[in-house]
Amino acid sequence: MAKIMIFIDGTWLYVNQYLLSRRHGEDFRLDYGKLPRVLAGLVETQLGNTHGDIVRTFLFGSNARNYDPRDDYLVQARRDFFDTLKEFYHYEVEVFPIDYKGRRLRKGDRHPDDEFFPQEKCVDIALATAMLYYAAIPNAYDIAVAVIGDRDFVPLLQHVRRLGKRVAIASVQGSCAAEYADPKDPLRLKDFDIIWIGDLLDQLELKAVRRQVDCQSPFHAGPTGFTTTEVLRKGQKYYCPACRESFRRQKEENLRYLPAEGKFEGAPSGVIQEGQISNIVQERGFGFIRNERGDYFFHFSEVAGDTDFDHLAVGDTVSFEVDIDPDPRNKERPAGKASGVRRGPAKEAADDHPPGPEASSAPAAE
Ligand SMILES: [Zn+2]
Predict the structure, then answer these.
(1) pTM
(2) What was the pLDDT predicted at 230?
(3) Cα 310 to middle of ligand 1, angstroms
(4) Domain for residue 24, yes or no?
């Protein structure tokens, strides 16, 4: 039996889904639940049907921080995706923040003269660190399956192989470094034929399942029944499109836009903060948290875990994650934005939220 670990460059795979869609002929959605098993199956076949035991699947990705609040739904969707990987498929997910300095997420939504370029930090280094770290631990894995395309990983794969581990590369045609695809493999990077994800689309397509759900917003108007293909996590509430649109507007109204040149000392990224509820507007479904860094707006749909929005009161201690830093210099709208709000001090929340590398190696804002 061979122990397999899978290391996915999540950002790279995400941005290259369009290549898979093009090949598939329509919108292709990758089933991340099936991906590890399908890749392991191909490795097993090439090994002569030795059974492979997938001991870990890692995905390294990033999400926006300090973005324009109009794009909040995109950030939420990304966060839901990462949570789904963890809760449904038991991926090890490491997410690194990208500071958007108050801007829109999509280039097309930004001012044409704005030369801002979002800087992704740490993702490739984190993947390399994990693969090498486990390669150096006796018996942690026998085979590393790298789901990658960027050339940067060449030295990593060479070193992992020098430690006596086998390496398989799975990639996407059209976004794969020539060194990985070369069957002669002059740089000695892999022990298996390259796996093209595009050849596996029939096995990897996420099939949409239609289900009946009820909108759970207390502010919902009209009949609550809807049909959706969305996958809801355990305990995640369904909100209908109309309610989500009104949440979006409400968040937008309650947040200032960061000045384009906004530069101020924020909290370190990825660390759970602690504060006290300073204001709560039950009938409109939002509130504010205060701590030494400033005030944070939060919406009831972002209260997490067992915490019930209806039972939060001014003065309660809560823990939360920071989406947007407060800007105390902005006199009109100095508040930032919080999510993942839970009753109780940060220490308790951290216990069911093991700190990833993002907790200790957060990139500094440029
Ligand atoms: Zn609704």
Answers:
(1) 0.80
(2) 83
(3) 18
(4) yes
